Amino acid sequence: MTHEIQARLERLPLHPEGQPALQHLTPHLLSALSVSASPDRALINFERFLAATPDPAGVLEALSEDPRTVDALVAVFAGSQYLTEILLRNPPWVSLLSMHSGIARIKTAACLATETRQVVAPWRTGAGESHREALDALRRFQQRELLRIGAADLAGLVELASVTSQLSLLADAIIQATLEIVAVSANVAAAGFAVLAMGKLGGNELNYSSDVDLLFLARPRQLTFAQVPLAEVFDEVHTLMSMDVAAKNGRLEQRMTAQTVLADRDALKQAVINLLMNSVEALPEEGGLIEFATEADDRGTWLRIRDNGRGMTEEEREHALEPFYTTRDKGTGLGLAIVHTIMQEHGGSIRIETRPTAGTVVSLFFPANHNESSS
Fold first, then answer.
1. Is there a contact between 63 and 25 (Cβ–Cβ < 8 Å)?
2. Helix or strand or coil: residue 93?
3. How far apart are CA 179 and CA 187, in angstroms?
4. Among 134, 133, 102, which residue's Cα sits nearest to residue 116?
5. Where are the alpha helices (DSSP H) in the chain?
6. Which residues contact 243 (CB under 8 A, 6 or more apart)?
7. At how many degrees (to 10) do helices 56-64 and 19-34 cross?
8. Residue 130: is it exposed, middle or buried by C-beta count within 10 angstroms (0-12/13-18/19+)?
9. Strand ordering across the sheet containing 288-296
10. In this structure, are residues 218 and 249 in contact, taking their beta carbons and an 8 Å threshold?
11. Cβ neighbours of residue 188 closer than 8 Å, sequence gap 6 or more
12. Which end of the chain, N or C, is less packed with Cβ atoms under 10 Å?
C-alpha cells in the first residue's frame, strides 16, 4: 500500500518547483495516511485539494514545514467528506488547520454572537451589500466554523460534549443573525417575536446531522388594511424562498391578472410564505413547479398557490387546517392553521384542492371590502 501511495504522489501533475516540497513532505504524508481511517479516500481528496488550490507548490512547501497540519488535513480528508468539500471550495481555509490551539478553542455564546454581527456589519451599516450577500457571508462564516469544529473533533482535540455545545451555540448565533437580516430587509420590527429551539438544539445537543427544529411565536397585532401590490409581494417571497426551491431543483413562477389585493401586507406575506414552504416540502426531486397566481372578480381577489407535488389524501385534506396536525416528522402542524387564522382576520376564506400524486392548489379569497365581509 505504501509503495502504491508513493507512486501516486510521484505522478501528481506538479510544476517542477513544487517537486522538492513534495519530496520533503512525502514521508510524513505517508505516515499520516497509513494510520488514517481511509487512506484511499484521504489521498484522493488530497489530490483534489492540490488541484483546487491556485498555488499547489506554495501549499506543499507550507505543509512540509508543518507536520501537525498534515495530520489534521489527512484526518479531515479521511473522516468527513462534508468538511472536505467545504475545504475544496475554500482552499485558503487550510490555514485554519495550522492554528492548532485555535481550532480547539471553545467559543462562548457571546463570542459567536459578536463574530456573526461582525460578518454582517457591512450590510447593517449600509455599505452596499444586499441582504442576499449578507446571508451568503453568514453562510461562509458558518461553514468556516463547521470546518474548525469538525477538524478539532477529528483530531481528538475536544470532547464530544464540547463539540455538541459548540455546534448548538453556532446554530443559535446564525439563527439570531439571520432573523435580524430578514427583519431589516422586510422592514418588520423584532419586538414581540420569539424563536423557540426544539429537539437537540433546544437541549444544546446538536450534532453534525441533526435537523434544526424551530418554533416561531409572535404577539398578535392590529392589522392594517391597504391595497397591496401583488408583484411586490411575489418578488419579496421569491427572494426569501429561492434557495429552498433551488435545493429541490424546482421552479417558482407567477401568473397574475389581479395586480393588488386589500390586505395587511405582513399578514399576506406570512400566509404566502407558509403555503410556499408546504409546496416546497411536497415537490418531487426533479421537475418541481410552484405557481403563484392571482385573479379578481366583483367580489374580491383570489390568490392561488399551485404545486405538482405529492398531494394529500382525503384524510389529510380534512384535517389540514387543524393546529398541530402534521404527517411530517419535521413539521409542527401550524403552517396552514396560521394561514386559516389570517384569512379569518381578513374576512376571507381558504380552499384546498388536492389528490395524492396530483399536486395541491390552495386558494385564498380576499373580499373587496373587508369591513362589509367581516361585519
1. yes
2. helix
3. 12
4. 134
5. 2-10, 19-34, 39-52, 56-64, 67-79, 81-89, 94-97, 100-103, 109-124, 131-154, 160-185, 199-202, 230-247, 265-282, 314-319, 335-345, 370-373
6. none
7. 60
8. exposed
9. 250-256, 288-296, 300-307, 360-367, 349-354
10. no
11. 182, 266
12. C
Alpha-carbon gap, residue 73 to 23, rounded angstroms: 18
Given the C-alpha cell 517537486, which residue does it identify?
19
Task: Name the pairing type of β-strands 349-354 and 360-367.
Answer: antiparallel
Cell readout for 197 is: 429551539
Residue 230 to residue 257: CA distance in whole angstroms: 10
Dig out the grid coordinates for 50 from the structure.
492540490
Count of all residues that appear for the chain in the document: 375
- Give the integer Cα–Cα distance in Å for 56 and 49: 9
Torsion angle (degrees, nearest 10) of CA 198, 204, 208, 214: 20
CB 242 within 8 A of CB 231: no
Q: Are 102 and 96 in contact (CB under 8 A)?
A: yes
**Residues with Cβ < 8 Å from 216, sequence gap 6 or more?**
193, 194, 195, 196
pLDDT digits (tens), the chain, 375 positions = 566 766 776 666 666 666 787 788 888 888 888 888 898 899 899 989 988 998 888 888 888 888 899 999 999 999 999 999 999 999 999 998 888 778 889 999 999 999 998 998 877 655 445 777 888 899 999 999 999 999 999 988 899 999 999 999 999 999 988 888 777 776 766 666 778 888 888 888 888 888 888 877 777 778 899 999 999 999 999 988 888 888 888 999 999 999 999 999 999 999 999 999 999 988 988 888 999 999 999 999 999 999 999 899 898 888 888 877 777 766 666 788 999 999 999 999 999 999 898 899 999 999 988 664 443
